[in-house]
Write a structure and sequence with these properties.
The complex is a heterodimer of chains A (226) and B (357). Chain A has 226 residues and is mainly alpha-helical. Chain A has one domain: MetI-like (MetI-like fold), CATH 1.10.3720.10. Chain A has eleven helices and no strands. In chain A, helix 1 packs parallel to helix 5 and helix 3 packs parallel to helix 9. Chain B is of the alpha+beta class. Helix content of chain B is 23%, strand content 38%. The mean pLDDT of chain B is 91. Classes of the chains: A mainly alpha (226), B alpha+beta (357). Chains A and B meet through helix 6 and helix 7 of A and strand 7 and helix 2 of B.
Amino acid sequence: MILSDGDLQAIWLTLRLAGVVTAILLLIGTPVAWWLAHSRSWFKGLVGAVVALPLVLPPSVLGFYLLLAMGPNGPVGDLTKALGIETLPFTFWGLVVASVFYSFPFMVQPLQNAFEAIGERPLQVAATLGASKLDAFFSVALPLSRRGFMTASILTFAHTVGEFGVVLMIGGNIPGVTRVASVQIYDHVEALEYSQAHRMAAIMLAFSFLVLLALYLWRSDNRKRD
Amino acid sequence: MKLSMKVQKKFPDFQLSADVALSGEQIGIFGKSGSGKSTLVSMLAGFVKPDAGEIILDGESLFSSSQGIDIRPEQRRIAMVFQQHCLFPHLNVHNNLLYGYKRCPVEYRTVNFDTLVSVLKLDPLLNRAVTSLSGGEKQRVALGRAILSNPRLLLMDEPLSALDDELRFQIIPYLKSVSEQFGIPYLFISHSLVEMRLMTDTVLALEKGEVTACTDSEQLARNRMGDTPVGYINLLKLDAMTERQGMCAYRWEGGEMLLSAGNSDTASGLFELSSKDIILFKRHPEAISARNLLECSVESMFQSGRKLGIQLTCGGGRLVAEIVPDAARELGVVEGTTVFAAIKASAFRRLSKTAVG
Protein backbone atom coordinates (compact mmCIF):
# COMPACT_ATOMS: atom_id res chain seq x y z
CA MET A 1 0.00 0.00 0.00
CA ILE A 2 1.39 3.38 -1.02
CA LEU A 3 -0.61 5.33 1.54
CA SER A 4 -1.16 4.43 5.20
CA ASP A 5 -4.60 4.25 6.79
CA GLY A 6 -3.87 7.58 8.45
CA ASP A 7 -3.07 9.14 5.08
CA LEU A 8 -6.27 7.79 3.54
CA GLN A 9 -8.27 9.02 6.52
CA ALA A 10 -6.73 12.50 6.13
CA ILE A 11 -7.51 12.56 2.41
CA TRP A 12 -11.12 11.49 2.98
CA LEU A 13 -11.54 14.13 5.70
CA THR A 14 -10.07 16.77 3.39
CA LEU A 15 -12.44 15.89 0.56
CA ARG A 16 -15.41 15.88 2.94
CA LEU A 17 -14.40 19.28 4.33
CA ALA A 18 -13.90 20.76 0.86
CA GLY A 19 -17.23 19.37 -0.35
CA VAL A 20 -19.21 20.71 2.61
CA VAL A 21 -17.49 24.12 2.46
CA THR A 22 -18.13 24.43 -1.29
CA ALA A 23 -21.81 23.56 -0.84
CA ILE A 24 -22.24 26.06 2.01
CA LEU A 25 -20.41 28.79 0.12
CA LEU A 26 -22.56 28.25 -2.96
CA LEU A 27 -25.58 29.04 -0.80
CA ILE A 28 -24.04 31.99 1.05
CA GLY A 29 -21.74 33.34 -1.65
CA THR A 30 -24.32 33.53 -4.45
CA PRO A 31 -26.58 36.19 -2.87
CA VAL A 32 -23.55 38.17 -1.67
CA ALA A 33 -22.02 38.08 -5.15
CA TRP A 34 -25.37 39.06 -6.69
CA TRP A 35 -25.68 42.00 -4.33
CA LEU A 36 -22.12 43.13 -5.04
CA ALA A 37 -22.76 42.86 -8.81
CA HIS A 38 -25.99 44.87 -8.78
CA SER A 39 -25.90 47.18 -5.78
CA ARG A 40 -25.26 50.88 -6.12
CA SER A 41 -25.05 51.30 -2.35
CA TRP A 42 -22.30 53.46 -0.89
CA PHE A 43 -21.10 50.63 1.34
CA LYS A 44 -20.66 48.19 -1.55
CA GLY A 45 -16.94 48.99 -1.52
CA LEU A 46 -16.76 48.24 2.20
CA VAL A 47 -18.47 44.86 1.78
CA GLY A 48 -16.23 44.07 -1.21
CA ALA A 49 -13.13 44.82 0.87
CA VAL A 50 -14.33 42.63 3.75
CA VAL A 51 -15.07 39.78 1.34
CA ALA A 52 -11.59 40.05 -0.19
CA LEU A 53 -9.79 40.32 3.17
CA PRO A 54 -8.87 36.59 3.45
CA LEU A 55 -6.92 36.93 0.19
CA VAL A 56 -4.33 39.16 1.87
CA LEU A 57 -4.69 38.30 5.55
CA PRO A 58 -2.15 35.84 7.02
CA PRO A 59 -4.09 32.62 7.78
CA SER A 60 -2.81 32.71 11.36
CA VAL A 61 -4.41 36.12 11.92
CA LEU A 62 -7.78 34.93 10.63
CA GLY A 63 -7.41 31.67 12.55
CA PHE A 64 -6.53 33.52 15.75
CA TYR A 65 -9.60 35.76 15.69
CA LEU A 66 -11.87 32.87 14.70
CA LEU A 67 -10.44 30.85 17.57
CA LEU A 68 -11.25 33.67 19.98
CA ALA A 69 -14.74 34.13 18.56
CA MET A 70 -15.60 30.43 18.58
CA GLY A 71 -13.89 29.68 21.90
CA PRO A 72 -15.85 29.25 25.15
CA ASN A 73 -15.57 32.98 25.94
CA GLY A 74 -16.24 34.29 22.45
CA PRO A 75 -19.59 35.44 21.02
CA VAL A 76 -19.93 32.36 18.80
CA GLY A 77 -18.93 30.17 21.74
CA ASP A 78 -21.64 31.80 23.87
CA LEU A 79 -24.16 31.08 21.11
CA THR A 80 -23.16 27.43 20.70
CA LYS A 81 -23.30 27.02 24.49
CA ALA A 82 -26.77 28.55 24.58
CA LEU A 83 -27.86 26.17 21.82
CA GLY A 84 -26.46 23.23 23.75
CA ILE A 85 -23.84 22.49 21.09
CA GLU A 86 -20.18 21.82 21.86
CA THR A 87 -17.75 24.64 21.19
CA LEU A 88 -16.53 24.60 17.62
CA PRO A 89 -12.71 24.71 17.89
CA PHE A 90 -11.02 21.34 17.41
CA THR A 91 -14.13 19.84 15.77
CA PHE A 92 -14.93 19.09 12.12
CA TRP A 93 -17.65 21.78 12.07
CA GLY A 94 -15.21 24.27 13.53
CA LEU A 95 -13.00 23.56 10.52
CA VAL A 96 -16.00 24.04 8.23
CA VAL A 97 -16.81 27.46 9.73
CA ALA A 98 -13.20 28.59 9.52
CA SER A 99 -12.83 27.35 5.95
CA VAL A 100 -16.03 29.11 4.92
CA PHE A 101 -14.50 32.41 6.05
CA TYR A 102 -11.13 31.63 4.53
CA SER A 103 -12.46 30.54 1.13
CA PHE A 104 -15.21 33.18 0.90
CA PRO A 105 -13.53 35.38 -1.76
CA PHE A 106 -12.76 32.36 -3.92
CA MET A 107 -16.49 31.74 -4.26
CA VAL A 108 -17.77 35.34 -4.31
CA GLN A 109 -15.38 37.02 -6.72
CA PRO A 110 -15.77 34.68 -9.73
CA LEU A 111 -19.55 34.74 -9.22
CA GLN A 112 -19.59 38.54 -8.96
CA ASN A 113 -17.59 38.78 -12.21
CA ALA A 114 -19.98 36.34 -13.92
CA PHE A 115 -23.07 38.28 -12.80
CA GLU A 116 -21.53 41.59 -13.87
CA ALA A 117 -20.70 40.11 -17.28
CA ILE A 118 -24.35 39.23 -17.89
CA GLY A 119 -25.36 42.88 -17.49
CA GLU A 120 -28.79 44.35 -16.82
CA ARG A 121 -30.33 43.87 -20.25
CA PRO A 122 -31.16 40.11 -20.21
CA LEU A 123 -32.79 40.58 -16.82
CA GLN A 124 -34.79 43.54 -18.11
CA VAL A 125 -35.90 41.48 -21.10
CA ALA A 126 -36.97 38.68 -18.78
CA ALA A 127 -38.95 41.21 -16.68
CA THR A 128 -40.79 42.54 -19.74
CA LEU A 129 -41.69 38.93 -20.56
CA GLY A 130 -43.29 38.51 -17.15
CA ALA A 131 -40.47 37.01 -15.08
CA SER A 132 -40.12 38.10 -11.46
CA LYS A 133 -36.63 38.86 -10.13
CA LEU A 134 -36.28 35.40 -8.60
CA ASP A 135 -37.61 33.74 -11.74
CA ALA A 136 -35.22 35.77 -13.92
CA PHE A 137 -32.35 34.76 -11.65
CA PHE A 138 -33.04 31.04 -12.00
CA SER A 139 -34.16 31.04 -15.65
CA VAL A 140 -31.69 33.55 -17.09
CA ALA A 141 -28.87 34.63 -14.76
CA LEU A 142 -28.03 31.19 -13.42
CA PRO A 143 -27.69 29.44 -16.81
CA LEU A 144 -25.79 32.40 -18.28
CA SER A 145 -23.32 32.42 -15.37
CA ARG A 146 -22.73 28.66 -15.24
CA ARG A 147 -19.10 29.16 -16.19
CA GLY A 148 -18.68 31.46 -13.21
CA PHE A 149 -20.35 28.91 -10.92
CA MET A 150 -18.06 26.16 -12.17
CA THR A 151 -14.95 28.31 -11.73
CA ALA A 152 -16.02 29.48 -8.26
CA SER A 153 -16.82 25.95 -7.10
CA ILE A 154 -13.56 24.47 -8.38
CA LEU A 155 -11.44 27.27 -6.90
CA THR A 156 -13.24 27.06 -3.56
CA PHE A 157 -12.89 23.28 -3.41
CA ALA A 158 -9.21 23.33 -4.39
CA HIS A 159 -8.42 26.19 -2.03
CA THR A 160 -10.08 24.39 0.89
CA VAL A 161 -8.13 21.23 0.09
CA GLY A 162 -4.90 23.22 0.31
CA GLU A 163 -5.61 25.05 3.57
CA PHE A 164 -3.10 24.72 6.37
CA GLY A 165 -2.72 27.71 8.67
CA VAL A 166 -6.35 28.31 9.56
CA VAL A 167 -6.99 24.58 9.84
CA LEU A 168 -4.13 24.14 12.29
CA MET A 169 -5.24 27.13 14.39
CA ILE A 170 -8.89 26.05 14.63
CA GLY A 171 -8.74 22.29 14.29
CA GLY A 172 -5.40 21.33 15.71
CA ASN A 173 -4.27 17.89 14.72
CA ILE A 174 -6.82 15.27 15.80
CA PRO A 175 -6.71 12.11 13.65
CA GLY A 176 -10.01 11.43 11.91
CA VAL A 177 -11.52 14.69 13.19
CA THR A 178 -9.38 17.62 12.13
CA ARG A 179 -6.21 16.13 10.66
CA VAL A 180 -6.58 17.03 7.00
CA ALA A 181 -4.09 16.18 4.22
CA SER A 182 -1.94 19.32 4.59
CA VAL A 183 -1.60 18.72 8.35
CA GLN A 184 -0.80 15.04 7.70
CA ILE A 185 2.10 16.09 5.46
CA TYR A 186 3.32 18.47 8.16
CA ASP A 187 3.15 15.58 10.65
CA HIS A 188 5.17 13.29 8.38
CA VAL A 189 7.83 15.95 7.94
CA GLU A 190 7.96 16.62 11.69
CA ALA A 191 8.44 12.87 12.21
CA LEU A 192 11.12 12.80 9.45
CA GLU A 193 8.93 10.38 7.42
CA TYR A 194 10.04 12.00 4.19
CA SER A 195 8.95 9.20 1.85
CA GLN A 196 5.39 9.29 3.21
CA ALA A 197 5.44 13.07 3.10
CA HIS A 198 6.60 12.85 -0.50
CA ARG A 199 3.71 10.57 -1.48
CA MET A 200 1.09 12.78 0.14
CA ALA A 201 2.69 15.96 -1.24
CA ALA A 202 2.86 14.44 -4.72
CA ILE A 203 -0.84 13.56 -4.55
CA MET A 204 -1.70 17.11 -3.45
CA LEU A 205 0.47 18.58 -6.19
CA ALA A 206 -1.04 16.34 -8.84
CA PHE A 207 -4.57 17.05 -7.59
CA SER A 208 -4.08 20.81 -7.61
CA PHE A 209 -2.50 20.76 -11.05
CA LEU A 210 -5.16 18.51 -12.55
CA VAL A 211 -7.98 20.61 -11.11
CA LEU A 212 -6.52 23.80 -12.55
CA LEU A 213 -5.73 22.10 -15.87
CA ALA A 214 -9.30 20.82 -16.13
CA LEU A 215 -10.62 24.31 -15.31
CA TYR A 216 -8.50 26.03 -17.95
CA LEU A 217 -9.28 23.41 -20.61
CA TRP A 218 -12.99 23.68 -19.86
CA ARG A 219 -12.87 27.48 -20.02
CA SER A 220 -11.05 27.57 -23.36
CA ASP A 221 -13.42 24.96 -24.79
CA ASN A 222 -16.41 27.06 -23.71
CA ARG A 223 -14.90 30.18 -25.21
CA LYS A 224 -14.47 28.41 -28.55
CA ARG A 225 -18.07 27.24 -28.49
CA ASP A 226 -19.35 30.74 -27.63
CA MET B 1 -54.26 52.45 -26.71
CA LYS B 2 -54.27 55.56 -24.55
CA LEU B 3 -51.11 56.60 -22.82
CA SER B 4 -50.59 59.57 -20.59
CA MET B 5 -47.13 60.39 -19.30
CA LYS B 6 -46.34 63.33 -17.09
CA VAL B 7 -42.87 62.61 -15.82
CA GLN B 8 -39.68 64.27 -14.74
CA LYS B 9 -36.27 62.71 -14.29
CA LYS B 10 -33.01 64.40 -13.42
CA PHE B 11 -29.58 62.88 -14.07
CA PRO B 12 -26.28 64.62 -13.25
CA ASP B 13 -25.86 65.73 -16.88
CA PHE B 14 -29.35 65.40 -18.34
CA GLN B 15 -32.92 66.24 -17.48
CA LEU B 16 -36.07 64.76 -19.01
CA SER B 17 -39.44 66.40 -18.71
CA ALA B 18 -42.47 65.13 -20.62
CA ASP B 19 -46.17 65.83 -20.38
CA VAL B 20 -47.96 63.99 -23.17
CA ALA B 21 -51.21 62.22 -23.87
CA LEU B 22 -51.04 59.79 -26.77
CA SER B 23 -53.67 57.66 -28.38
CA GLY B 24 -53.36 55.34 -31.35
CA GLU B 25 -52.06 51.94 -32.28
CA GLN B 26 -48.80 52.82 -34.03
CA ILE B 27 -47.02 55.60 -32.23
CA GLY B 28 -43.46 56.76 -32.75
CA ILE B 29 -40.95 58.45 -30.49
CA PHE B 30 -38.44 60.31 -32.59
CA GLY B 31 -35.27 62.10 -31.62
CA LYS B 32 -31.53 62.21 -31.99
CA SER B 33 -29.24 60.12 -29.85
CA GLY B 34 -29.28 61.55 -26.32
CA SER B 35 -32.66 63.26 -26.73
CA GLY B 36 -34.24 61.14 -23.99
CA LYS B 37 -36.17 58.58 -26.07
CA SER B 38 -34.80 55.53 -24.33
CA THR B 39 -35.13 57.10 -20.88
CA LEU B 40 -38.79 57.84 -21.56
CA VAL B 41 -39.38 54.29 -22.73
CA SER B 42 -37.44 52.85 -19.77
CA MET B 43 -39.74 54.76 -17.44
CA LEU B 44 -42.76 53.33 -19.22
CA ALA B 45 -41.34 49.80 -18.99
CA GLY B 46 -40.54 50.32 -15.31
CA PHE B 47 -36.74 50.14 -15.51
CA VAL B 48 -36.20 53.78 -14.58
CA LYS B 49 -38.21 55.39 -11.82
CA PRO B 50 -39.29 58.97 -12.53
CA ASP B 51 -38.45 61.56 -9.88
CA ALA B 52 -42.04 62.76 -10.03
CA GLY B 53 -45.17 62.42 -12.10
CA GLU B 54 -47.51 59.73 -13.27
CA ILE B 55 -47.87 57.21 -16.08
CA ILE B 56 -51.34 55.98 -17.02
CA LEU B 57 -51.88 53.28 -19.65
CA ASP B 58 -55.43 52.54 -20.77
CA GLY B 59 -56.81 53.96 -17.53
CA GLU B 60 -54.47 52.02 -15.25
CA SER B 61 -51.90 53.91 -13.23
CA LEU B 62 -48.47 52.30 -13.70
CA PHE B 63 -46.66 54.98 -11.76
CA SER B 64 -47.78 57.82 -9.55
CA SER B 65 -45.41 59.62 -7.22
CA SER B 66 -48.31 61.29 -5.40
CA GLN B 67 -50.15 58.02 -4.78
CA GLY B 68 -47.02 55.95 -4.20
CA ILE B 69 -47.79 53.60 -7.12
CA ASP B 70 -44.95 51.90 -8.99
CA ILE B 71 -46.02 48.69 -10.72
CA ARG B 72 -43.13 46.28 -11.18
CA PRO B 73 -41.95 45.77 -14.82
CA GLU B 74 -43.06 42.11 -14.90
CA GLN B 75 -46.59 43.14 -13.90
CA ARG B 76 -47.03 45.94 -16.45
CA ARG B 77 -47.61 43.61 -19.43
CA ILE B 78 -45.42 45.83 -21.58
CA ALA B 79 -43.08 43.82 -23.79
CA MET B 80 -39.99 45.27 -25.35
CA VAL B 81 -37.87 44.63 -28.42
CA PHE B 82 -34.40 46.11 -28.14
CA GLN B 83 -31.83 47.25 -30.69
CA GLN B 84 -29.68 44.29 -29.74
CA HIS B 85 -32.14 41.39 -29.97
CA CYS B 86 -31.20 40.12 -26.46
CA LEU B 87 -32.23 36.53 -27.11
CA PHE B 88 -31.32 34.10 -24.35
CA PRO B 89 -28.32 32.17 -25.69
CA HIS B 90 -28.90 29.14 -23.44
CA LEU B 91 -32.34 28.52 -25.01
CA ASN B 92 -33.05 27.51 -28.60
CA VAL B 93 -35.46 29.48 -30.78
CA HIS B 94 -38.50 27.45 -29.67
CA ASN B 95 -37.79 27.98 -25.98
CA ASN B 96 -36.95 31.65 -26.47
CA LEU B 97 -40.34 32.11 -28.12
CA LEU B 98 -42.10 30.35 -25.27
CA TYR B 99 -40.33 32.24 -22.46
CA GLY B 100 -42.92 34.98 -22.12
CA TYR B 101 -45.84 32.82 -23.25
CA LYS B 102 -45.35 30.41 -20.35
CA ARG B 103 -45.30 33.28 -17.89
CA CYS B 104 -48.39 34.97 -19.27
CA PRO B 105 -51.54 34.31 -17.24
CA VAL B 106 -53.85 31.96 -19.16
CA GLU B 107 -56.66 34.54 -19.38
CA TYR B 108 -54.43 36.88 -21.42
CA ARG B 109 -53.17 34.27 -23.89
CA THR B 110 -54.77 35.33 -27.16
CA VAL B 111 -51.82 34.97 -29.53
CA ASN B 112 -51.58 31.47 -30.94
CA PHE B 113 -48.05 30.04 -31.08
CA ASP B 114 -48.46 28.28 -34.43
CA THR B 115 -50.07 31.30 -36.08
CA LEU B 116 -47.31 33.58 -34.94
CA VAL B 117 -44.61 31.16 -36.06
CA SER B 118 -46.27 31.03 -39.44
CA VAL B 119 -46.68 34.82 -39.78
CA LEU B 120 -43.03 35.42 -38.88
CA LYS B 121 -41.86 32.44 -40.98
CA LEU B 122 -40.03 30.96 -38.01
CA ASP B 123 -40.88 27.31 -38.70
CA PRO B 124 -37.49 26.28 -40.07
CA LEU B 125 -35.70 28.00 -37.20
CA LEU B 126 -37.49 26.50 -34.21
CA ASN B 127 -34.84 23.96 -33.25
CA ARG B 128 -31.87 26.15 -34.05
CA ALA B 129 -29.54 27.67 -31.46
CA VAL B 130 -30.01 31.42 -31.39
CA THR B 131 -26.27 31.92 -31.80
CA SER B 132 -26.50 30.42 -35.30
CA LEU B 133 -29.13 32.90 -36.57
CA SER B 134 -28.54 35.91 -38.80
CA GLY B 135 -29.27 39.43 -37.55
CA GLY B 136 -32.65 39.58 -39.27
CA GLU B 137 -33.68 36.13 -38.01
CA LYS B 138 -32.69 37.06 -34.47
CA GLN B 139 -34.82 40.20 -34.62
CA ARG B 140 -37.80 38.20 -35.91
CA VAL B 141 -37.43 35.75 -33.03
CA ALA B 142 -37.15 38.63 -30.55
CA LEU B 143 -40.31 40.14 -32.01
CA GLY B 144 -42.13 36.80 -31.87
CA ARG B 145 -41.05 36.26 -28.27
CA ALA B 146 -42.35 39.68 -27.28
CA ILE B 147 -45.69 39.18 -29.08
CA LEU B 148 -46.16 35.72 -27.55
CA SER B 149 -45.97 37.22 -24.07
CA ASN B 150 -49.36 38.75 -25.00
CA PRO B 151 -48.52 42.31 -23.97
CA ARG B 152 -51.02 45.13 -24.00
CA LEU B 153 -48.29 47.37 -25.42
CA LEU B 154 -45.15 46.58 -27.37
CA LEU B 155 -42.15 48.88 -27.05
CA MET B 156 -39.62 48.77 -29.86
CA ASP B 157 -36.44 50.62 -28.94
CA GLU B 158 -34.49 51.20 -32.16
CA PRO B 159 -35.13 47.59 -33.23
CA LEU B 160 -33.72 48.15 -36.71
CA SER B 161 -30.60 50.16 -35.91
CA ALA B 162 -28.29 47.17 -35.73
CA LEU B 163 -29.39 45.90 -39.15
CA ASP B 164 -28.20 46.95 -42.59
CA ASP B 165 -30.62 48.74 -44.95
CA GLU B 166 -31.73 45.63 -46.82
CA LEU B 167 -32.54 43.76 -43.61
CA ARG B 168 -34.18 46.80 -42.02
CA PHE B 169 -36.73 47.08 -44.77
CA GLN B 170 -37.27 43.34 -44.81
CA ILE B 171 -38.18 43.41 -41.10
CA ILE B 172 -40.54 46.40 -41.23
CA PRO B 173 -43.46 44.49 -42.84
CA TYR B 174 -43.14 41.85 -40.11
CA LEU B 175 -43.18 44.47 -37.37
CA LYS B 176 -46.29 46.08 -38.80
CA SER B 177 -48.21 42.99 -39.78
CA VAL B 178 -47.65 41.17 -36.49
CA SER B 179 -48.89 44.11 -34.50
CA GLU B 180 -51.90 44.62 -36.77
CA GLN B 181 -52.77 40.92 -37.01
CA PHE B 182 -52.68 40.32 -33.28
CA GLY B 183 -54.09 43.68 -32.29
CA ILE B 184 -51.16 44.77 -30.18
CA PRO B 185 -50.41 48.51 -30.23
CA TYR B 186 -46.81 49.60 -30.31
CA LEU B 187 -44.51 52.44 -29.47
CA PHE B 188 -41.71 52.61 -32.01
CA ILE B 189 -38.54 54.44 -31.05
CA SER B 190 -36.12 55.55 -33.72
CA HIS B 191 -33.89 58.38 -34.89
CA SER B 192 -34.84 57.62 -38.52
CA LEU B 193 -37.65 59.64 -40.05
CA VAL B 194 -38.00 57.14 -42.89
CA GLU B 195 -38.65 54.35 -40.37
CA MET B 196 -41.11 56.61 -38.58
CA ARG B 197 -43.08 57.22 -41.77
CA LEU B 198 -43.20 53.53 -42.60
CA MET B 199 -44.04 52.35 -39.09
CA THR B 200 -46.13 54.97 -37.32
CA ASP B 201 -49.09 57.30 -37.58
CA THR B 202 -48.43 59.66 -34.69
CA VAL B 203 -44.98 60.78 -33.67
CA LEU B 204 -43.70 62.34 -30.48
CA ALA B 205 -40.53 64.30 -31.19
CA LEU B 206 -37.99 64.77 -28.40
CA GLU B 207 -35.04 67.10 -28.21
CA LYS B 208 -32.69 67.52 -25.25
CA GLY B 209 -35.17 65.89 -22.90
CA GLU B 210 -38.14 68.03 -23.97
CA VAL B 211 -41.12 67.16 -26.17
CA THR B 212 -40.91 69.43 -29.21
CA ALA B 213 -43.79 68.08 -31.30
CA CYS B 214 -46.59 65.57 -31.32
CA THR B 215 -47.83 65.21 -34.86
CA ASP B 216 -48.26 62.72 -37.68
CA SER B 217 -45.05 61.30 -39.13
CA GLU B 218 -45.57 62.80 -42.60
CA GLN B 219 -46.04 66.27 -41.14
CA LEU B 220 -42.93 65.87 -38.99
CA ALA B 221 -40.88 64.98 -42.08
CA ARG B 222 -42.16 68.10 -43.85
CA ASN B 223 -41.54 70.31 -40.82
CA ARG B 224 -37.95 69.13 -40.65
CA MET B 225 -37.24 69.34 -44.40
CA GLY B 226 -35.68 72.83 -44.37
CA ASP B 227 -33.45 72.11 -41.37
CA THR B 228 -31.83 68.86 -42.43
CA PRO B 229 -29.09 68.39 -45.03
CA VAL B 230 -30.96 65.45 -46.59
CA GLY B 231 -34.18 67.40 -47.08
CA TYR B 232 -37.47 65.55 -47.41
CA ILE B 233 -37.08 61.91 -48.42
CA ASN B 234 -39.57 60.81 -51.08
CA LEU B 235 -40.25 57.08 -50.82
CA LEU B 236 -41.01 55.50 -54.17
CA LYS B 237 -42.19 51.96 -54.82
CA LEU B 238 -40.84 51.04 -58.21
CA ASP B 239 -41.49 47.80 -60.07
CA ALA B 240 -41.47 45.97 -63.41
CA MET B 241 -37.90 46.90 -64.25
CA THR B 242 -36.69 46.56 -67.81
CA GLU B 243 -33.23 47.38 -69.06
CA ARG B 244 -33.09 50.02 -71.73
CA GLN B 245 -30.03 51.63 -73.30
CA GLY B 246 -27.85 50.75 -70.35
CA MET B 247 -30.36 52.14 -67.83
CA CYS B 248 -33.12 50.66 -65.68
CA ALA B 249 -36.65 51.68 -66.55
CA TYR B 250 -39.04 51.13 -63.65
CA ARG B 251 -42.78 51.55 -63.59
CA TRP B 252 -43.93 54.15 -61.07
CA GLU B 253 -47.56 55.04 -60.40
CA GLY B 254 -48.62 54.59 -64.01
CA GLY B 255 -45.56 56.39 -65.34
CA GLU B 256 -41.92 55.56 -65.68
CA MET B 257 -38.66 56.36 -63.87
CA LEU B 258 -35.23 55.86 -65.40
CA LEU B 259 -32.56 54.82 -62.91
CA SER B 260 -28.86 54.33 -63.45
CA ALA B 261 -27.51 50.89 -64.38
CA GLY B 262 -26.52 49.87 -60.84
CA ASN B 263 -30.12 49.01 -60.01
CA SER B 264 -30.61 46.17 -62.48
CA ASP B 265 -30.39 43.30 -59.97
CA THR B 266 -34.00 43.55 -58.85
CA ALA B 267 -37.33 43.91 -60.61
CA SER B 268 -38.91 46.01 -57.86
CA GLY B 269 -38.04 47.82 -54.69
CA LEU B 270 -38.39 50.76 -52.36
CA PHE B 271 -36.27 53.75 -53.36
CA GLU B 272 -35.54 57.06 -51.73
CA LEU B 273 -35.26 60.36 -53.53
CA SER B 274 -34.34 63.56 -51.74
CA SER B 275 -36.44 66.68 -52.28
CA LYS B 276 -33.13 68.43 -53.03
CA ASP B 277 -32.60 66.24 -56.10
CA ILE B 278 -35.68 67.49 -57.92
CA ILE B 279 -35.25 70.55 -60.15
CA LEU B 280 -38.33 72.43 -61.28
CA PHE B 281 -38.82 74.17 -64.61
CA LYS B 282 -41.58 76.58 -65.54
CA ARG B 283 -41.65 75.35 -69.13
CA HIS B 284 -40.54 72.19 -70.86
CA PRO B 285 -36.78 72.59 -71.28
CA GLU B 286 -35.42 72.27 -74.78
CA ALA B 287 -32.73 69.81 -73.80
CA ILE B 288 -31.66 68.48 -70.43
CA SER B 289 -29.10 65.98 -69.12
CA ALA B 290 -31.38 64.58 -66.39
CA ARG B 291 -33.03 61.41 -67.64
CA ASN B 292 -36.38 61.96 -65.94
CA LEU B 293 -38.55 64.89 -66.84
CA LEU B 294 -42.05 64.73 -65.40
CA GLU B 295 -44.93 67.05 -66.08
CA CYS B 296 -46.43 67.77 -62.66
CA SER B 297 -49.11 69.87 -61.08
CA VAL B 298 -48.43 71.85 -57.90
CA GLU B 299 -50.81 70.41 -55.34
CA SER B 300 -49.76 72.45 -52.33
CA MET B 301 -46.87 74.34 -50.80
CA PHE B 302 -45.49 74.51 -47.30
CA GLN B 303 -42.83 76.49 -45.49
CA SER B 304 -40.09 74.55 -43.73
CA GLY B 305 -37.27 76.60 -42.24
CA ARG B 306 -35.94 78.84 -45.03
CA LYS B 307 -37.13 76.44 -47.69
CA LEU B 308 -40.39 76.03 -49.50
CA GLY B 309 -41.74 72.52 -50.00
CA ILE B 310 -43.66 71.94 -53.21
CA GLN B 311 -46.07 69.01 -53.20
CA LEU B 312 -46.30 67.77 -56.77
CA THR B 313 -48.75 65.41 -58.43
CA CYS B 314 -47.11 63.59 -61.30
CA GLY B 315 -49.59 61.27 -62.99
CA GLY B 316 -50.70 58.96 -60.20
CA GLY B 317 -47.70 59.64 -58.00
CA ARG B 318 -46.71 62.37 -55.57
CA LEU B 319 -43.37 63.97 -54.95
CA VAL B 320 -42.10 66.72 -52.69
CA ALA B 321 -39.52 69.10 -54.12
CA GLU B 322 -37.83 71.86 -52.18
CA ILE B 323 -36.88 75.26 -53.45
CA VAL B 324 -35.94 78.63 -51.99
CA PRO B 325 -38.62 81.38 -51.91
CA ASP B 326 -36.80 83.40 -54.63
CA ALA B 327 -37.03 80.41 -56.98
CA ALA B 328 -40.74 80.10 -56.19
CA ARG B 329 -41.29 83.72 -57.19
CA GLU B 330 -39.37 83.29 -60.45
CA LEU B 331 -41.24 80.10 -61.29
CA GLY B 332 -44.52 81.73 -60.34
CA VAL B 333 -45.69 78.57 -58.58
CA VAL B 334 -49.09 78.62 -57.00
CA GLU B 335 -51.43 75.75 -56.34
CA GLY B 336 -52.58 74.23 -59.62
CA THR B 337 -49.62 75.48 -61.68
CA THR B 338 -48.02 73.04 -64.07
CA VAL B 339 -44.26 72.61 -63.70
CA PHE B 340 -41.69 70.18 -65.04
CA ALA B 341 -39.63 68.17 -62.55
CA ALA B 342 -36.19 66.98 -63.64
CA ILE B 343 -34.59 64.11 -61.76
CA LYS B 344 -31.21 62.56 -62.49
CA ALA B 345 -31.18 58.80 -62.93
CA SER B 346 -28.43 58.59 -60.29
CA ALA B 347 -30.46 60.46 -57.65
CA PHE B 348 -32.32 57.36 -56.47
CA ARG B 349 -31.07 55.12 -53.68
CA ARG B 350 -32.53 51.71 -53.17
CA LEU B 351 -33.62 50.96 -49.61
CA SER B 352 -35.00 47.49 -50.19
CA LYS B 353 -35.52 44.95 -52.94
CA THR B 354 -39.11 44.59 -51.82
CA ALA B 355 -41.65 47.37 -51.76
CA VAL B 356 -42.42 48.23 -48.11
CA GLY B 357 -45.10 50.28 -46.49
